[in-house]
Specification:
8 strands, four-stranded antiparallel β-sheet
């Protein structure tokens, strides 16, 4: 139970984490203010003015609360649709910059687990870690036989605390998902107000925990959830990304409408104008400055607010592009995913043409045409007085088109 005594301190900590560090608006969107923090309509002026300082404090507090909260920060660092840019920048540091475990604790853990002193186990053990993370850190070492190894050490005393924290997060997620709020634009009630709680659950359900069929020459390492796109979805996604890269807002809007499910009061013209306006704000940016993942997150959020329900796979696509933006910019600041996609437009068009002209596809088209013509013939014969249909659809088609 979320309100069990053992969870009360964690509950106060998580609410305070968002309300005390400039994220009251995020807490309101996710239903956290209903837990007793109050719900002012306006953000306090100091929260808006001091977001850089608040972001640094937010990251620091996550580290203080422990490994599970560091993981939460790492997750939030990939969600520009939820947090303002200063927070994203600070939380990105948690991906590879977590405080080290004291060397004495590292040595004590190794000696306890392996049953011998460091000097007996290793010819050399580097006291400086190769890397640190929320759950542990790694050290370079050399065995007595001369073999170079890497030793990974779990942070001491985290197992029980981590289990309790994860149980609390599970209870909190259930509470947030169960919140039913009235959307001001619609009469029906929705189980959530943002893509975080609505699309994320669908994306997780559709995703695989690990990628399959990955070319080993270019492996995905810890990219999280993966999902397969149907051929129709791939075509639409390709058109969407090309339209984003070319700043064609109207084409972006029409492709999204084709992919999504509009609600009963969806305003197509108004939606197209707002999407075009959003895309236009990026026209003056150079190709290197356009962040495909962040832009797609903004498009998804706008679509959700305007009553266009997009496929859950779009959230995973946005997360993948956002991660790709960060990785590729670290390797090559001049690399731009959207430019690369546009560079393959001819190849994509040729590939699509070959697929559409394959014997299997031609047969499918012929069968679809047969069904259509049969339906037309049946309707025509039934409309004639005294007529009756005696031939099967395919027999009729063959007689109508003799060799």
């Amino acid at each position: 139970m979320l309100f069990a005594p053992k969870h009360l301190l964690r509950l106060a900590a998580i609410v305070g984490l968002f309300t005390q560090y400039g994220l009251r608006d995020v807490a309101r969107q996710q239903g956290l203010l209903s837990l007793g923090a109050g719900d002012d309509d306006e953000l306090p002026p100091d929260e808006v003015a001091n977001r850089e300082a608040h972001a640094e404090g937010f990251k620091r507090r996550l580290v203080e609360l422990g490994p599970a909260y560091v993981k939460l920060g790492q997750l939030l660092s990939t969600r520009p649709d939820l947090l303002p840019p200063p927070y994203i920048r600070e939380l990105e540091c948690l991906q590879d910059d977590v405080g080290p475990i004291p060397l004495a604790d590292v040595e004590a853990t190794i000696e306890h687990e392996l049953g011998a002193r460091i000097s007996k186990l290793f010819e050399f053990f580097d006291p400086k870690p190769l890397g640190t993370a929320s759950l542990g850190q790694v050290h370079g070492a050399r065995l007595r036989g001369g073999r170079a190894v890497v030793v990974k050490v779990q942070r001491p005393h985290i197992r029980a605390a981590l289990a309790d924290d994860l149980l609390f997060f599970n209870e909190l997620a259930g509470f947030m998902a169960a919140q039913v709020v009235s959307d001001e634009r619609r009469e029906e009630v929705l189980p959530a107000t943002t893509p975080l709680s609505k699309l994320e659950a669908e994306a997780q359900a559709a995703a695989s925990p690990v990628p399959d069929g990955v070319d080993v020459r270019l492996a995905l390492i810890d990219f999280g959830m993966t999902a397969r796109l149907s051929s129709t979805m791939r075509d639409a996604t390709t058109r969407l990304l090309m339209a984003l890269g070319d700043h064609r807002g109207d084409q972006v809007a029409s492709t999204l409408i084709e992919m999504g499910e509009p609600t009963s009061n969806f305003d197509r013209s108004g939606y197209t104008r707002e999407i075009s306006s959003l895309i236009a704000r990026n026209v003056d940016l150079t190709a290197e400055e356009v962040e495909a993942g962040r832009l797609l997150f903004e498009v998804i959020d706008l679509s959700f607010r305007k009553g266009l329900r997009l496929p859950a796979e779009m959230t995973l696509l946005a997360k993948a592009l956002f991660n790709l933006d960060g990785v590729t910019r670290a390797l090559d600041p001049t690399f731009t995913p959207l430019e690369t996609i546009r560079g393959f437009d001819n190849e994509i068009a040729m590939s699509r043409a070959k697929r559409d002209m394959s014997p299997r596809r031609l047969y499918q088209i012929a069968m679809e045409s047969s069904d259509l013509l049969a339906a037309l013939h049946t309707g025509w014969t039934r409309s004639r007085p005294g007529s009756r249909t005696t031939n099967s659809p395919r027999t009729w088609m063959c007689r109508s088109f003799p060799r």
